Amino acid sequence: MEKLIIKGNKELSGKISISGSKNATLPILAATILANQVTLKNIPLVKDIFTMVELLNFIGLKARIIKKKNIIKINNNEKNINTLAPYKLVKTMRAGVLVLGSLLTKYGKAKVSLPGGCAIGTRPVDLHLFALKKLGAKIKIKNGYIIADAKKGLKGCVIKFPSISVGATENALLAASNAKGITILKNCAIEPEIKDLILFLKKLGLIINLKGRSIIIKQRKIKNSKIVHNVIFDRIELGTYMIAGALQATNNIIINKINPKIVKSEIDILRKTGVKITIKKSSIVIRKNKKLKRINITTKPYPGFPTDLQAQLMVLLTQANGVSKIKEDIFENRFMHVSELKRMGADIEIKDKTAIIKGPTKLTGAEVMATDLRASVSLVLAGLVAENKTIINRIYHLDRGYEFLESKLKSCKAEIKRV
Ligand code: EPZ
What we know:
globular, alpha/beta, 4-stranded mixed β-sheet, 24 strands, 14 helices, binds ligand EPZ
């Protein structure tokens, strides 16, 4: 099992380029089932993407990754399509459930493994199935599989989500893209990754309008011309490195290949703690501030503060003066990083869904264990701050979502190595 070893408390400075977004690439890969020839650019070379490409090839598309160019080329010649997403692929990469909407709307049937839960929660898909049923699909759950059927095709309608879900919005959008007539989705998630999916679907000839939290989709014949799409940058990776800079960059860390407008709420929150942030057209310059101020935040659907940055912000707040509070309002069990951070000297108590963080506390290196993707990266951030050596186990969690993490941090003078 690989580990990361970090020698902490080093002054960081340098340049970091942000990769393409994993959470935009995954639903767009599911959408390529609707197309014929697609070239996706700015792809992050991370494990979840490789698994999704494996799933597309299992289904019968010809998908191949050109690693040195961060490109994926996909050909769907419609021959021997297998509308099955097997457990072995979906269990390690829950977003595999997103092929359900595409397969159902294009081929009239799909058999997709229930994704099951993960470390941060039960992760149900009831909202996904609610939307597909409204569009006319017959859904059965059998032996851990979702068996969906729509022989006569799907029919557009109005669907109001009882609660906001990124994945359910994406699956409904994909299913609606070939449903007869007009579909109106209400109370949708409107993350930038969903807007990137909409941009991609429009290139397939679909007419889609986003108004507030409603998405209106008009069925159109899908163009089978060659589609090229540049995936949006990863705003969560950006937030992670902004916090690394806020913690340890005595000189500047310049983070480029981004669009600052998309991360307004993250920038506002970090500025409230006193972090020095300079915004340029397509980059952000960040520098440590000795006097960090305490804050209270609650994680919210976009444009609120993202749950995927909650663990990372918590590390920053261990260095802030005073008592901060973070309420995790999206997932039921997303505080696994707290016990590991406490072993490194953090002073954090959990009451119901709120973490109470007392700072500033001196962090010291320890041997710790990663549990989920974002919790793992919070341990890396704590390792960058802590005195002496931190060893992080189970870093396969990190490899699911962070491209070239060590080399990006090394380029900012961090002492980090994989063994
Ligand atoms: C997406 O997960 C992201 N994953 C997550 O990022 C992210 O944390 C999450 O959105 C919230 O922003 C991808 O995009 C691949 P949800 P998703 O459906 O779609 C409940 C990462 O680290 N819910 O918005 O699964 C659910 O349990 C990952 O990159 C239902 O109850 O999130 C949760 O409490 C982690 N029923 C809440 O809604 C459903 O049918 C929000 O989940 C679906 C969700």
